[in-house]
Write a structure and sequence with these properties.
The chain has one domain. Helices cover 83% and strands 0% of the residues. The chain is built from two helices and no strands. The relative contact order is 0.07. Residues 12-45 form the Anti-sigma factor NepR domain. It holds the Pfam family NepR.
């Protein structure tokens, strides 16, 4: 086996693993503390756009 074909297989495994981890992370719900932070940021954004 030459180095280019083994590198290709390694890159393919890395791609598959990254996709698997990403898909698993996308299925998880956001923790409450992040949801609270997003709500606070939206409230501030609304206050700024309303001139407060």
């Amino acid at each position: 086996m030459d180095s280019s074909s083994s590198k290709s297989k390694v890159e393919q495994q890395i791609d598959e693993n990254l996709k698997r981890v990403y898909n698993d992370a996308m299925k998880d719900e956001l923790p409450d503390r992040f949801m609270n932070l997003i709500a606070q940021l939206k409230a501030k954004e609304g206050a700024v756009s309303n001139g407060n």
